[in-house]
Amino acid sequence: MNTYTLKNLDCANCALKIETHLKSLPGVSYASVDFSTLTLQIDTNDFNTVEKAIHHIEPSVELMPGGPLSEAAAAKSEINHGMEISIIIVSSILTITGFFFHRTFHDTPYHFLEFIVIFIAYGISGYKVLINALRTAFFGRMFDENILMTIATLGAIAIHQLPEAASVMVFYKIGDLLQRLALQRSRKSIASLMALRPDQATVFDKGAYSRVAPETVRPGQTIIVKAGERIPLDGIIISGEAAIDASALTGEHLPQNRGVNDAVAAGSINLSGVLTIRVTDDFSHSSLSRIMELTQNALHKKARTEQFITAFARWYTPSVVAVAALIAVLPPLFIPGALFFSWFHRALVLLVISCPCAFVISIPLGYFGGIGAASKKGILVKGANVFDDLVNCTTMVFDKTGTLTKGILTVTGIIPCNGYSADQILSFAATAQAHSHHPIAVSIVRHYGKHVDAVTPGEYAEIPGLGVITIIGGKRIIVGNDRLMHRENISHPRCSFDSTVAHVAVDGRYAGYITIGDRLKEGAAESIVALRRSGITNVHMVTGDNLSAAVAIATRLGIENVHADLLPSGKLDVMEKLLSPLKRGPKVAFVGDGINDAPVLARADIGIAMGDGSDAAIETSDIVIMSGALGKVAEAIAIARSTRAIVRQNIILAFAVKGFFIALGILGIATMWEAVFADMGVALCAIFNATRLTKGTKAGDEDRTRNVNLGKVALYH
Q1: 218-281, CATH topology level
Q2: I want to staple 246 with a disulfide (CB 3.0 to 4.6 A). Which of 59, 268, 281, 351 is the partner?
Q3: Cα-based torsion angle of the residue sequence 225, 231, 237, 242 in order, rounded to the nearest 10 degrees
Q4: Given this model, what pLDDT does residue 252 score?
Q5: Are the beta carbons of 237 and 275 closer than 8 angstroms?
Q6: Do the first three CATH levels of 2-77 and 218-281 match, i.e. the same topology?
Q7: Candidates 245, 399, 482, 597; catalytic one
């Protein structure tokens, strides 16, 4: 998959035509054009054919490697405001003068004074339209907006409506400039991510410092970041302490103190002190690159509403042009007293209205604004289609460890049995689980605090969701949960605990157990309440932990549906039961962070991953909460609802104004310049309406359920 910037593309309908045509080419397996960011994503093995096809549709468009966040895109030419405004002022003055001459010499058709000033005004304000019309006409495309505008204005000149022809071009020029300026401003909300990309990194190697491009730094190398500098790559602090501002990544504006052994992310700002950092990922896999890539790709995953408008636009223009042709021909033939001049003028008005740009631009810009607003809050939404599902979400399923809880487990107790000591149990458990990366295993090894000689792979077996079985010093050691004890027929005194427990058995004899505790994430209970207020009627928790420990956590959070003692496949089974068999039914979201959550995240209608979780979870999810804060889930729902409201407003506005002026045009009330002004006005209103999203979104919707009844805890074992 390659991404390109489409330079000189200034028409939303043209972007739609390019995408539609590219999809029909035999050598193209995927193509998506996003007019909001002027980007093309394409998967093809015949780039030359693609380039020719684009030039066939839009000869002035140039393909530039890289997306809107690339340096190539940043280098594209800006609008020459002075020149554009000067043209508008001069052509407006000439058009007003032409109106004066038109009224003064109305008895003399095409008086040379009127003709000269109108011709100049028409030429300098509409020369780009005329040139583009000639280019596209050469390739046989007659439903292009430039051709329709040219036909309409030349028709006006033919029936001696010279001032109207010029005014149409002037108003179109004004509207086009305002639209491009508004779009340029809107695009900055996404393109501003480029500012997060550090140009250089200070590498410390063999006692010497050197400034290099971040792309050249490899994992394991050491970099120095001074106060005020942006951290160029992900890494671990090996010396120094500083306050870190990660708001650009997480949306959290409160600086965090970071010291030795703490992880820091690329794109964060070092506010104080000097940090020495060991790089853990190259730049292409850093947090910053991930944000840039996910945000850019999200704009090409179109929502159902966008797909509908795309299909609608394909037949809208031909239909209106057909109606215009009938309006020009039929009434003079069949209505007594109907003048061809009058009905031909009405047909010209319809030609101006037939451009579908207002429809095409109004919908994606709403989603564009929503994605930009979410990214500012540290919420990465991987596609506009995700917003549609999130709005219809009524059920949310949470993984426990690392999602609702901090996932930083600590040993809280060691209870020996059958003559074994606490030290023996801890030693057996730590040695047996030295190979494991499970949070429980990590907490036990960390608590042991001594060097562990891990067992050889041939003497080690990890059973997902149960525990481990190893051979240590000739003894068969089993460390795991209650189900593993039952599976191995090991008699033990207790099965139910209010905390997480790792049982230990030696040569088939029960040796004791280790209790492990976890802490809730800050604001977890408040986040669950906020979700209920956002319309989430069913909240579930799934965990591989024992039932008693799971219920204790769920009760503190007010979660009534608990699914405990689950293997990874069990979580998937729970999700399958909750999913609606109807595609248009209520949606189910899953929130998780671990590798074993990846299948459920992929299966859920909406997968929400914590940004501090595993790469597998992040890759398979639809939404990434960069800070890992649960409160962001409710914020994501609020943004989705605001986005839907904006999109609906834009749709209603576009249909209402277009329909109104089509009716006025048929009745002979609207003039061409009024039609083009209204058409541009719709596009401008849609753009400015969409930018409201990036200026701020409510942290939550109106309180739907003021008195939240958390209800009785229902247990699913």
Answers
A1: 2.70.150
A2: 268
A3: 70
A4: 62
A5: yes
A6: no
A7: 399
The first and second tokens of residue 675, run together, are 């039609």
pLDDT digits over 272-326, tens only?
A: 888 999 999 888 777 666 666 666 555 556 566 666 766 776 777 788 888 888 9
Across the range 684-707, mean pLDDT stands at 56
Mean pLDDT of the chain: 80
The CATH fold of domain 2-77 = Alpha-Beta Plaits (3.30.70)
Per-domain residue ranges of the chain = 2-77, 218-281, 379-405+521-642, 410-517
Q: How far is the C-alpha of 176 from the C-alpha of 161, rounded, in Å? A: 23
Under CATH, which number does the domain 410-517 receive? 3.40.1110.10
Q: Specify the pTM.
A: 0.69
Distance CA 394, CA 345 (A): 53
Rounded to a whole number of angstroms, the distance between the first and last alpha carbons of the chain is 45
CATH number for the domain running over 379-405+521-642 = 3.40.50.1000
> For residue 268, what is the DSSP state?
-
Task: Tell me the sheet residues that pair with 376.
Answer: none
Buried b (16+ CB within 10 A) or exposed e, 293-308: ebbbbbbbbbbebbee
Residue 21 has pLDDT above 90, yes or no: no
Q: Over 179-232, what HEC string results?
A: HHHHHHHHHHHHHHHHHHCCCCEEEEECCEEEEECHHHCCCCCEEEECCCCECC
pLDDT score for 167:
82
The pLDDT confidence band at residue 41, using thresholds 50, 70 and 90, is confident
pLDDT in tens, 485-517: 999 999 998 888 878 899 999 999 999 999 988
CA distances from 306 to 302, 347, 357, 383, 692 (A): 6, 29, 13, 12, 19
- Confirm if 372 and 694 have CB atoms less than 8 A apart: yes
DSSP 339-406: -HHHHHHHHHHHHHHT--HHHHHHHHHHHHHHHHHHHHTTEEE--HHHHHHHHTEEEEEEEIIIIIB-
In the annotation, is 399 catalytic? Answer: yes
Strands 222-225, 201-205: pairing kind: antiparallel
